[in-house]
């Protein structure tokens, strides 16, 4: 698990060092959800597709996850998207499991909503469902996914 954490931190650091301030292609932030939560970084490959990586080093559920976002509606103050994610989680430091999730979300660009210079923060509520194997009988469990992310875009 420590190797995954180090690799993830390296990826996040790489993303931060490769920033381009003029077009806000990159972002770093926090995503609060279960079991896909933690520190994240993303890269907008275009105005439609986004790749995201994250680590969850907190609490009983620790993990590493990758997500793809498809932005199907872009406006000046928000962007609506669908997402799919895959990750590996460790539950109570005893079981390691593959997890999958998918759903929809909306990213609200706060500097466009609130007048004045409010930095380049965005807020992204999400709703979806996922599958993870944390059971004792090696069976996948369907769970509801409700998340909220806050990101600094650069």
Q: Which key features would you list for this structure?
A:
single chain, mainly beta, Porin, 8 strands, 13% helix, 58% strand, elongated
For the largest beta-sheet, the strand count, sense and barrel status come to: 8 strands, antiparallel, barrel
- State the name of the first-level CATH class: Mainly Beta
Query: Which stretches are low in confidence, meaning pLDDT under 50 for 5 or more residues running?
Result: 17-22
Radius of gyration, Cα only, in angstroms?
Answer: 16 Å
Q: Spell the H/E element sequence.
A: HEEEEEEHEE
Q: How far is the N terminus from the C terminus? A: 30 Å
Could you say which structural class the secondary elements and strand pairing correspond to?
Answer: mainly beta
Shape: elongated
CATH architecture: Beta Barrel
Task: Tell me the number of strands.
Answer: 8
CATH fold-level topology: Porin
Please indicate the count of domains. 1
Cross-sheet strand order for the largest sheet? 1-2-3-4-5-6-7-8
Relative helix content:
10-25%
How does this structure look, described?
There is one protein chain. With 154 residues, this protein is mainly beta. The chain has a single domain (2-153), classed as Beta Barrel (Porin), CATH 2.40.160.20. Helices cover 13% and strands 58% of the residues. It has helices at residues 2-17, 110-113, and strands spanning 26-32, 38-44, 49-56, 61-74, 78-91, 95-109, 121-132, 141-153. Strands 1-2-3-4-5-6-7-8 form an 8-stranded antiparallel barrel. The radius of gyration is 16 Å and the shape is elongated. Mean pLDDT is 80; it is low at 17-22.
